[in-house]
Write a structure and sequence with these properties.
Blueprint (H helix, E strand, L loop, with lengths): L32 H15 L30 H12 L3 H13 L5 H17 L3 H14 L4 H17 L3 H15 L4 H13 L3 H14 L5 H13 L3 H14 L4 H13 L3 H13 L6 H12 L5 H13 L7 H13 L3 H11 L7 H12 L3 H14 L4 H8 L2
Helix pairs in contact: 1-2, 2-3, 2-4, 3-4, 4-5, 5-6, 6-7, 6-8, 7-8, 8-9, 9-10, 10-11, 11-12, 12-13, 13-14, 14-15, 15-16, 16-17, 17-18, 18-19, 19-20
Length: about 400
């Protein structure tokens, strides 16, 4: 075999797979300002013993197996509870937490006093992004067993969510399983926590069952829930189900970029490259492709389509000119290959010349040398071959034969 003959240059398509945008699924519910204010109002009322729920059967968990203790704030701790809540209302987290610790350490505090103080301490730590500390205090609130069912199971649910956020997946699943066993809840917003935990644990078939149950039970399922279910379908090889769900989400949300990107990803993973390209081109035409990975996704689609190397080259050139695609080895090599296989030799050489110094070894220089030789540019071929040898190549004899021309 003549080592100076240009070899087939492998396209990068295989290395540029579709990316499912699955970052929107929250692992712990973020509280809005309104939510926080409402929570504070309710907790303030509880701290003063003003919770009017005589029976938890009218609360959020009417089927709960736990018998609510019915304990109220003790008269001796009421002033401290009020002081703790005043500090919390004034955003004095450190002050509120210090008082909460005092209450939990006080022998005169009853189970309600201590459980409520632990709940507030957990909330202050959550507000400060100390999830591990919040989990510990939520466990205390549950162990004291003094809250009504709504507050008790609210603390349990929050703990499951925070454990999920902290990647304590086994613990989160155990907590949420206990929650379901005791509350008998079938609410979709609760089921989604279990589905998320199962997904993170890579128990995909179980996750799909729970997630679908949550979505079917919700009159308006959130997009991120559906995206999580779509991800489980991918993991279990249920491409048709993933495509159908992605098309449904995208159809209902034509202006949602994430939904459209996920639709393109499902088509790409199902090797329906023409459909993936059509979706991504609409986004490009409207200026919605704004990240390096998004341009990579589009040009990798074209590289997987026979005869579309020129289209790939145009996408890469546009991305580089706009500063969206990084001026790195992979993008320059993809451009060089796209141009070469679309018979645009002169710009291909220019792209190879940019990519070669960025390569970890001399293989790109060696391919550049072969193309120079093919174009009868022997001095440049020899120099590129010398550069290849300097950086190291798998078959140095190939490069040496070019330098000996």
């Amino acid at each position: 075999m003549n080592p100076t003959a240009p070899r087939h240059l492998n396209l990068l398509a295989a290395a540029m797979g579709a990316v499912l945008v699955f970052g929107g699924v929250s692992q712990a519910n973020a509280q809005t300002a309104h939510d926080r204010a409402e929570a504070r109002r309710e907790r303030h009322a509880q701290s003063q013993g003003q919770d009017d729920q005589a029976s938890d059967s009218a609360g959020q968990y009417p089927n709960a197996t736990r018998e609510a203790p019915g304990t109220k704030a003790s008269s001796k701790m009421t002033p401290k509870l009020k002081k703790m809540m005043d500090a919390y209302d004034d955003d004095d987290s450190a002050g509120a937490r210090a008082i909460a610790e005092e209450i939990m350490a006080n022998d005169k505090a009853n189970a309600y006093d201590k459980a409520f103080a632990a709940q507030i301490a957990a909330q202050t730590l959550y507000d400060e992004d100390d999830s591990a500390g919040a989990i510990a205090d939520l466990q205390k609130a549950l162990d004291y067993n003094g809250l009504d069912n709504d507050a008790h199971y609210g603390a349990m649910l929050m703990m499951a969510q925070l454990q999920l956020q902290e990647e304590q997946y086994d613990a989160s699943l155990a907590t949420i399983d206990r929650f379901f066993a005791e509350t008998k809840s079938t609410k979709p917003e609760h089921l989604i926590v279990k589905g998320n935990a199962l997904y993170r644990m890579e128990r995909y078939p179980e996750a799909a069952t729970v997630l679908k149950q949550a979505i079917d039970a919700s009159p308006e399922p959130r997009n991120d829930w559906q995206q999580m279910l779509m991800a489980t379908y991918f993991e279990t090889g249920q491409t048709a189900e993933a495509n159908a769900l992605a098309e449904s989400i995208a159809g209902k949300n034509p202006g949602d970029k994430r939904a459209q990107m996920n639709l393109a990803a499902t088509y790409q993973q199902g090797e329906q490259f023409d459909k993936a390209a059509a979706v991504l081109e609409k986004l490009r035409a409207s200026g919605q492709l704004t990240e390096d990975r998004e341009y990579r996704q589009l040009y990798s689609v074209y590289l997987n389509m026979e005869g579309h190397e020129a289209d790939a080259a145009k996408v890469i050139q546009e991305g580089l000119s706009k500063g969206i695609l990084q001026n790195d080895f992979q993008n320059n090599l993809a451009l060089a290959q796209s141009l070469y296989f679309s018979e645009q030799i002169a710009p291909a050489i220019e792209a190879y010349a940019k990519a070669a110094p960025l390569d970890d070894d001399g293989e790109t220089y060696l391919n550049l040398a072969r193309i120079y030789w093919q174009e009868d540019r022997i001095p440049e071929a020899k120099e590129a071959a010398r550069q290849a040898l300097a950086k190291g190549v798998k078959n140095p004899e190939d490069a040496k034969k070019i330098t000996a021309l």
